[in-house]
Amino acid sequence: MSVSINFDHVVKRYKEVTVIPDLSLQVKEGEFFTLLGPSGCGKTTLLRMVAGFNSIEGGTISFDSQVINDIAPAKRNIGMVFQNYAVFPHMSVRKNVEFGLKNRKIPKDEIKKRVDEILETVRIAEYAERLPERLSGGQQQRVALARAIVIKPNLLLMDEPLSNLDAKLRIEMRNAIKQIQNEVGITTIYVTHDQEEAMAVSDRIAVMNLGVIQHVSTPKSIYQRPNNLFVANFIGHSNTLKAKADISGRKLVFENGYALQYDGFADDAADGEVKVSVRPEEFIIRKEDEPGVPATVKSSIFLGLMTTYFVELFSGETVEITDVSSISSIIPNGTKVSLDFESEKINIFMPDGTRSLTKGVQNDAYA
Ligand SMILES: Nc1ncnc2c1ncn2[C@@H]1O[C@H](COP(=O)(O)OP(=O)(O)O)[C@@H](O)[C@H]1O
Ligand SMILES: [Mg+2]
Predict the structure, then answer these.
(1) Which ligand is the nearest neighbour of the Cα of 13?
(2) pTM for this structure?
(3) The pairing of beta strand 204-209 with beta strand 251-254
Protein backbone atom coordinates (compact mmCIF):
# COMPACT_ATOMS: atom_id res chain seq x y z
CA MET A 1 0.00 0.00 0.00
CA SER A 2 0.89 3.67 -0.34
CA VAL A 3 2.95 5.17 2.47
CA SER A 4 3.38 8.55 4.12
CA ILE A 5 6.96 9.83 4.33
CA ASN A 6 8.56 11.71 7.16
CA PHE A 7 11.90 13.49 6.78
CA ASP A 8 13.17 14.38 10.23
CA HIS A 9 16.25 16.65 10.48
CA VAL A 10 17.83 14.99 7.46
CA VAL A 11 21.47 15.85 6.66
CA LYS A 12 23.43 15.07 3.47
CA ARG A 13 27.16 15.52 3.05
CA TYR A 14 29.36 14.61 0.12
CA LYS A 15 32.75 14.24 1.87
CA GLU A 16 33.16 17.52 3.76
CA VAL A 17 30.60 19.46 1.68
CA THR A 18 27.16 19.77 3.29
CA VAL A 19 24.52 19.81 0.58
CA ILE A 20 21.45 19.42 2.83
CA PRO A 21 22.06 20.95 6.28
CA ASP A 22 18.82 20.14 8.14
CA LEU A 23 15.67 19.18 6.29
CA SER A 24 12.31 18.25 7.79
CA LEU A 25 9.22 17.51 5.71
CA GLN A 26 6.09 15.36 5.68
CA VAL A 27 4.57 13.83 2.57
CA LYS A 28 1.04 12.48 2.99
CA GLU A 29 -0.19 9.10 1.85
CA GLY A 30 -1.42 9.20 -1.75
CA GLU A 31 -0.15 12.74 -2.25
CA PHE A 32 1.44 14.09 -5.44
CA PHE A 33 4.31 16.00 -3.85
CA THR A 34 6.86 18.02 -5.83
CA LEU A 35 10.39 19.14 -4.96
CA LEU A 36 10.91 22.32 -6.95
CA GLY A 37 14.08 24.40 -7.09
CA PRO A 38 16.94 25.62 -9.27
CA SER A 39 19.54 23.24 -10.64
CA GLY A 40 21.99 22.12 -7.96
CA CYS A 41 19.72 22.80 -4.96
CA GLY A 42 19.70 19.15 -3.88
CA LYS A 43 16.51 17.66 -5.34
CA THR A 44 18.12 14.59 -6.90
CA THR A 45 20.29 14.13 -3.81
CA LEU A 46 17.20 13.98 -1.58
CA LEU A 47 15.33 11.66 -3.94
CA ARG A 48 18.29 9.26 -4.04
CA MET A 49 18.33 9.23 -0.22
CA VAL A 50 14.69 8.14 -0.26
CA ALA A 51 15.49 5.44 -2.82
CA GLY A 52 18.50 4.23 -0.81
CA PHE A 53 21.16 5.08 -3.42
CA ASN A 54 22.65 7.83 -1.22
CA SER A 55 23.83 7.53 2.36
CA ILE A 56 22.15 9.66 5.04
CA GLU A 57 24.54 11.61 7.27
CA GLY A 58 22.03 12.70 9.88
CA GLY A 59 18.36 12.48 10.87
CA THR A 60 15.85 9.89 9.71
CA ILE A 61 13.58 9.13 6.77
CA SER A 62 10.50 7.06 7.63
CA PHE A 63 7.83 5.32 5.57
CA ASP A 64 4.74 5.48 7.79
CA SER A 65 6.31 4.93 11.20
CA GLN A 66 9.18 2.74 9.99
CA VAL A 67 12.65 4.32 9.78
CA ILE A 68 14.16 3.23 6.46
CA ASN A 69 17.70 4.65 6.79
CA ASP A 70 19.24 1.18 6.93
CA ILE A 71 16.85 -0.72 4.69
CA ALA A 72 18.38 -1.93 1.40
CA PRO A 73 17.10 -0.15 -1.76
CA ALA A 74 15.55 -3.32 -3.16
CA LYS A 75 13.52 -3.82 0.03
CA ARG A 76 11.94 -0.36 -0.05
CA ASN A 77 9.38 -1.25 -2.75
CA ILE A 78 9.79 1.96 -4.73
CA GLY A 79 8.96 2.64 -8.37
CA MET A 80 11.23 5.09 -10.18
CA VAL A 81 11.14 7.12 -13.39
CA PHE A 82 14.09 9.19 -14.57
CA GLN A 83 14.80 11.77 -17.22
CA ASN A 84 16.48 9.32 -19.63
CA TYR A 85 13.69 6.79 -19.94
CA ALA A 86 16.00 3.83 -19.30
CA VAL A 87 13.82 1.42 -21.24
CA PHE A 88 15.61 -1.66 -22.62
CA PRO A 89 15.92 -1.11 -26.39
CA HIS A 90 16.05 -4.81 -27.32
CA MET A 91 12.84 -5.72 -25.45
CA SER A 92 9.25 -5.15 -26.56
CA VAL A 93 7.08 -2.79 -24.56
CA ARG A 94 5.42 -5.79 -22.89
CA LYS A 95 8.78 -7.38 -21.98
CA ASN A 96 10.01 -4.07 -20.60
CA VAL A 97 7.01 -3.77 -18.31
CA GLU A 98 7.13 -7.46 -17.31
CA PHE A 99 10.76 -7.08 -16.33
CA GLY A 100 10.04 -5.61 -12.91
CA LEU A 101 7.77 -8.52 -12.03
CA LYS A 102 10.11 -11.30 -13.14
CA ASN A 103 12.05 -11.61 -9.89
CA ARG A 104 8.96 -11.49 -7.74
CA LYS A 105 7.75 -15.09 -8.12
CA ILE A 106 4.39 -14.09 -9.57
CA PRO A 107 2.45 -16.70 -11.63
CA LYS A 108 2.57 -16.24 -15.41
CA ASP A 109 -1.11 -15.54 -15.98
CA GLU A 110 -1.10 -13.03 -13.12
CA ILE A 111 1.87 -11.27 -14.77
CA LYS A 112 0.01 -11.05 -18.09
CA LYS A 113 -3.09 -9.69 -16.40
CA ARG A 114 -1.19 -7.01 -14.49
CA VAL A 115 0.86 -5.92 -17.49
CA ASP A 116 -2.25 -5.66 -19.69
CA GLU A 117 -3.93 -3.57 -17.01
CA ILE A 118 -1.00 -1.20 -16.62
CA LEU A 119 -0.57 -0.79 -20.39
CA GLU A 120 -4.21 0.30 -20.48
CA THR A 121 -3.67 2.69 -17.59
CA VAL A 122 -0.78 4.47 -19.31
CA ARG A 123 -2.51 4.16 -22.69
CA ILE A 124 0.09 2.24 -24.68
CA ALA A 125 -1.73 -1.11 -24.91
CA GLU A 126 -1.76 -0.91 -28.71
CA TYR A 127 2.05 -0.78 -28.79
CA ALA A 128 2.60 -3.78 -26.49
CA GLU A 129 4.61 -5.80 -29.00
CA ARG A 130 6.68 -2.91 -30.39
CA LEU A 131 10.32 -2.17 -29.69
CA PRO A 132 10.92 1.15 -27.87
CA GLU A 133 12.90 2.59 -30.79
CA ARG A 134 9.67 2.65 -32.77
CA LEU A 135 7.96 4.80 -30.13
CA SER A 136 8.00 8.57 -29.55
CA GLY A 137 9.75 10.03 -26.49
CA GLY A 138 6.41 10.48 -24.75
CA GLN A 139 5.43 6.87 -25.42
CA GLN A 140 8.79 5.62 -24.15
CA GLN A 141 8.25 7.60 -20.97
CA ARG A 142 4.84 5.93 -20.61
CA VAL A 143 6.64 2.56 -20.82
CA ALA A 144 9.04 3.66 -18.08
CA LEU A 145 6.09 4.80 -15.96
CA ALA A 146 4.26 1.49 -16.55
CA ARG A 147 7.36 -0.45 -15.51
CA ALA A 148 7.63 1.63 -12.35
CA ILE A 149 4.03 1.16 -11.22
CA VAL A 150 3.42 -2.46 -12.32
CA ILE A 151 5.26 -3.67 -9.20
CA LYS A 152 2.60 -1.94 -7.07
CA PRO A 153 5.17 0.16 -5.23
CA ASN A 154 4.53 1.92 -1.92
CA LEU A 155 6.00 5.05 -3.40
CA LEU A 156 6.72 6.48 -6.84
CA LEU A 157 9.78 8.70 -7.39
CA MET A 158 10.16 10.76 -10.57
CA ASP A 159 13.24 12.85 -11.32
CA GLU A 160 12.68 15.41 -14.09
CA PRO A 161 10.88 12.76 -16.18
CA LEU A 162 9.82 15.22 -18.88
CA SER A 163 12.94 17.26 -19.44
CA ASN A 164 14.01 15.35 -22.57
CA LEU A 165 10.70 15.98 -24.30
CA ASP A 166 9.80 18.96 -26.48
CA ALA A 167 7.56 21.68 -25.05
CA LYS A 168 4.26 20.46 -26.49
CA LEU A 169 4.82 16.85 -25.46
CA ARG A 170 5.86 17.98 -21.98
CA ILE A 171 2.45 19.55 -21.45
CA GLU A 172 0.65 16.49 -22.80
CA MET A 173 2.72 14.13 -20.64
CA ARG A 174 2.41 16.16 -17.45
CA ASN A 175 -1.37 15.94 -17.80
CA ALA A 176 -1.07 12.20 -18.42
CA ILE A 177 1.19 11.69 -15.38
CA LYS A 178 -1.17 13.67 -13.15
CA GLN A 179 -4.16 11.66 -14.37
CA ILE A 180 -2.41 8.30 -14.01
CA GLN A 181 -1.19 9.16 -10.50
CA ASN A 182 -4.76 10.11 -9.63
CA GLU A 183 -6.13 6.80 -10.89
CA VAL A 184 -3.45 4.71 -9.17
CA GLY A 185 -3.47 6.84 -6.00
CA ILE A 186 0.13 6.12 -5.10
CA THR A 187 2.25 8.48 -2.98
CA THR A 188 4.51 10.32 -5.43
CA ILE A 189 7.57 12.52 -5.04
CA TYR A 190 8.20 14.40 -8.26
CA VAL A 191 11.31 16.46 -8.94
CA THR A 192 11.43 19.38 -11.37
CA HIS A 193 13.09 22.78 -11.84
CA ASP A 194 10.12 23.92 -13.96
CA GLN A 195 7.69 25.93 -11.85
CA GLU A 196 4.85 25.75 -14.33
CA GLU A 197 5.12 21.96 -14.49
CA ALA A 198 5.16 21.80 -10.69
CA MET A 199 2.02 23.95 -10.47
CA ALA A 200 0.23 21.81 -13.05
CA VAL A 201 0.78 18.39 -11.45
CA SER A 202 1.19 18.83 -7.70
CA ASP A 203 -1.08 18.54 -4.69
CA ARG A 204 1.67 20.31 -2.74
CA ILE A 205 5.07 21.75 -3.61
CA ALA A 206 8.25 22.19 -1.56
CA VAL A 207 10.34 25.02 -2.98
CA MET A 208 14.05 24.39 -2.26
CA ASN A 209 17.15 26.54 -2.50
CA LEU A 210 20.69 25.55 -1.48
CA GLY A 211 19.43 22.39 0.25
CA VAL A 212 16.97 24.36 2.40
CA ILE A 213 13.19 24.24 2.10
CA GLN A 214 11.80 27.72 1.50
CA HIS A 215 8.07 27.04 1.41
CA VAL A 216 5.73 24.03 1.46
CA SER A 217 2.12 24.48 0.39
CA THR A 218 -0.40 24.09 -2.42
CA PRO A 219 0.41 25.57 -5.86
CA LYS A 220 -2.20 28.29 -5.40
CA SER A 221 -1.01 29.31 -1.98
CA ILE A 222 2.68 29.36 -3.00
CA TYR A 223 1.89 31.50 -6.05
CA GLN A 224 -0.41 33.94 -4.30
CA ARG A 225 1.27 34.22 -0.88
CA PRO A 226 4.95 33.26 -1.21
CA ASN A 227 6.82 32.78 2.06
CA ASN A 228 9.85 34.85 1.06
CA LEU A 229 11.22 36.86 -1.86
CA PHE A 230 13.15 33.89 -3.29
CA VAL A 231 9.87 31.96 -3.65
CA ALA A 232 8.10 35.00 -5.12
CA ASN A 233 10.81 35.37 -7.76
CA PHE A 234 11.20 31.66 -8.50
CA ILE A 235 7.48 30.96 -8.94
CA GLY A 236 6.43 32.98 -11.96
CA HIS A 237 7.86 36.41 -12.60
CA SER A 238 7.97 39.22 -10.04
CA ASN A 239 9.06 42.84 -10.00
CA THR A 240 10.46 44.21 -6.75
CA LEU A 241 9.87 47.81 -5.64
CA LYS A 242 10.87 49.65 -2.47
CA ALA A 243 8.29 51.21 -0.16
CA LYS A 244 7.70 52.16 3.45
CA ALA A 245 5.11 50.40 5.57
CA ASP A 246 2.78 52.62 7.61
CA ILE A 247 0.90 50.07 9.71
CA SER A 248 -1.48 52.34 11.63
CA GLY A 249 -2.20 54.43 8.53
CA ARG A 250 -2.73 51.16 6.54
CA LYS A 251 -0.54 52.47 3.76
CA LEU A 252 2.40 51.53 1.59
CA VAL A 253 4.29 54.68 0.66
CA PHE A 254 6.37 54.41 -2.53
CA GLU A 255 9.58 56.34 -3.24
CA ASN A 256 7.79 59.13 -5.12
CA GLY A 257 5.42 59.62 -2.18
CA TYR A 258 2.45 57.73 -3.63
CA ALA A 259 0.49 56.19 -0.73
CA LEU A 260 -1.34 52.98 -1.58
CA GLN A 261 -4.18 51.95 0.71
CA TYR A 262 -3.04 48.56 2.06
CA ASP A 263 -4.91 46.17 4.37
CA GLY A 264 -2.70 43.10 3.98
CA PHE A 265 -0.09 43.59 6.73
CA ALA A 266 0.78 40.46 8.72
CA ASP A 267 0.46 40.72 12.52
CA ASP A 268 4.23 40.96 12.97
CA ALA A 269 4.78 43.65 10.32
CA ALA A 270 6.29 46.90 11.63
CA ASP A 271 6.66 50.44 10.28
CA GLY A 272 9.68 50.93 8.04
CA GLU A 273 11.20 49.88 4.76
CA VAL A 274 9.80 46.85 2.90
CA LYS A 275 10.22 45.16 -0.48
CA VAL A 276 7.05 45.04 -2.54
CA SER A 277 6.76 42.14 -4.96
CA VAL A 278 4.43 42.82 -7.88
CA ARG A 279 3.65 40.25 -10.57
CA PRO A 280 3.25 41.57 -14.14
CA GLU A 281 -0.52 41.11 -13.96
CA GLU A 282 -0.82 43.00 -10.64
CA PHE A 283 -0.05 46.48 -12.01
CA ILE A 284 -2.78 48.87 -13.06
CA ILE A 285 -1.67 51.29 -15.77
CA ARG A 286 -3.29 54.70 -15.29
CA LYS A 287 -3.07 58.04 -17.08
CA GLU A 288 -0.06 60.23 -16.33
CA ASP A 289 -2.01 62.74 -14.19
CA GLU A 290 -3.66 60.12 -11.96
CA PRO A 291 -2.18 59.03 -8.59
CA GLY A 292 0.51 56.34 -8.70
CA VAL A 293 4.20 55.77 -9.40
CA PRO A 294 5.39 57.79 -12.43
CA ALA A 295 6.78 55.69 -15.28
CA THR A 296 7.39 55.61 -19.04
CA VAL A 297 6.47 52.82 -21.46
CA LYS A 298 9.69 51.73 -23.21
CA SER A 299 8.52 48.84 -25.38
CA SER A 300 5.75 46.28 -25.76
CA ILE A 301 5.19 42.78 -27.07
CA PHE A 302 1.77 41.74 -28.35
CA LEU A 303 1.13 38.11 -27.33
CA GLY A 304 -2.48 37.72 -28.44
CA LEU A 305 -4.48 37.43 -25.24
CA MET A 306 -1.98 39.55 -23.32
CA THR A 307 0.32 42.43 -24.13
CA THR A 308 3.60 42.71 -22.20
CA TYR A 309 4.97 46.19 -21.52
CA PHE A 310 8.47 47.06 -20.39
CA VAL A 311 8.09 50.19 -18.34
CA GLU A 312 10.78 52.38 -16.77
CA LEU A 313 10.00 53.74 -13.32
CA PHE A 314 10.95 57.31 -12.39
CA SER A 315 13.69 55.75 -10.24
CA GLY A 316 15.28 54.14 -13.30
CA GLU A 317 14.39 50.47 -12.84
CA THR A 318 12.47 48.60 -15.53
CA VAL A 319 9.42 46.53 -14.66
CA GLU A 320 7.43 44.04 -16.72
CA ILE A 321 3.68 44.50 -16.91
CA THR A 322 1.12 42.29 -18.62
CA ASP A 323 -2.26 43.63 -19.57
CA VAL A 324 -5.15 41.95 -21.35
CA SER A 325 -4.87 43.12 -24.95
CA SER A 326 -7.53 45.60 -25.90
CA ILE A 327 -9.05 45.90 -29.34
CA SER A 328 -8.49 49.65 -29.51
CA SER A 329 -4.77 50.10 -29.09
CA ILE A 330 -1.41 49.21 -27.62
CA ILE A 331 0.12 51.98 -25.49
CA PRO A 332 2.80 53.62 -27.69
CA ASN A 333 6.46 53.64 -26.63
CA GLY A 334 7.40 56.84 -24.82
CA THR A 335 3.98 57.29 -23.21
CA LYS A 336 4.15 58.63 -19.68
CA VAL A 337 1.89 56.70 -17.31
CA SER A 338 1.13 56.34 -13.63
CA LEU A 339 1.40 52.85 -12.08
CA ASP A 340 -1.05 51.62 -9.51
CA PHE A 341 -1.26 48.18 -7.88
CA GLU A 342 -3.85 45.49 -7.15
CA SER A 343 -3.36 45.85 -3.42
CA GLU A 344 -5.01 42.53 -2.43
CA LYS A 345 -2.67 40.61 -4.73
CA ILE A 346 0.77 42.13 -4.17
CA ASN A 347 3.11 40.76 -1.46
CA ILE A 348 5.47 42.59 0.87
CA PHE A 349 8.67 41.28 2.43
CA MET A 350 11.40 42.18 4.91
CA PRO A 351 14.02 44.42 3.25
CA ASP A 352 16.40 41.40 3.03
CA GLY A 353 13.64 39.30 1.44
CA THR A 354 13.82 36.52 4.02
CA ARG A 355 10.26 36.72 5.31
CA SER A 356 6.82 37.74 4.09
CA LEU A 357 5.07 40.57 5.93
CA THR A 358 1.76 39.85 4.18
CA LYS A 359 -1.05 38.14 6.04
CA GLY A 360 -2.35 34.81 4.73
CA VAL A 361 0.90 32.93 4.09
CA GLN A 362 0.36 29.18 4.55
CA ASN A 363 3.52 27.21 5.14
CA ASP A 364 3.56 23.53 6.10
CA ALA A 365 7.35 23.48 6.37
CA TYR A 366 7.38 23.61 10.15
CA ALA A 367 4.04 21.94 10.77
N1 LIG B 1 28.04 12.36 -6.00
C2 LIG B 1 28.28 13.63 -5.65
N3 LIG B 1 29.46 14.02 -5.10
C4 LIG B 1 29.69 15.29 -4.73
N5 LIG B 1 28.81 16.29 -4.88
C6 LIG B 1 27.62 16.00 -5.44
C7 LIG B 1 27.28 14.67 -5.87
N8 LIG B 1 26.02 14.67 -6.38
C9 LIG B 1 25.60 15.97 -6.29
N10 LIG B 1 26.54 16.76 -5.73
C11 LIG B 1 26.40 18.22 -5.44
O12 LIG B 1 25.29 18.37 -4.59
C13 LIG B 1 24.53 19.53 -4.94
C14 LIG B 1 23.09 19.13 -5.24
O15 LIG B 1 23.07 18.38 -6.44
P16 LIG B 1 21.75 17.70 -7.00
O17 LIG B 1 21.09 16.95 -5.90
O18 LIG B 1 22.10 16.92 -8.21
O19 LIG B 1 20.86 18.98 -7.38
P20 LIG B 1 19.55 19.08 -8.28
O21 LIG B 1 19.02 17.71 -8.54
O22 LIG B 1 18.62 19.94 -7.48
O23 LIG B 1 19.96 19.77 -9.54
C24 LIG B 1 25.25 20.17 -6.10
O25 LIG B 1 26.08 21.17 -5.59
C26 LIG B 1 26.06 19.03 -6.68
O27 LIG B 1 27.21 19.51 -7.30
MG1 LIG C 1 18.68 16.73 -10.38
Answers:
(1) 1
(2) 0.94
(3) unpaired
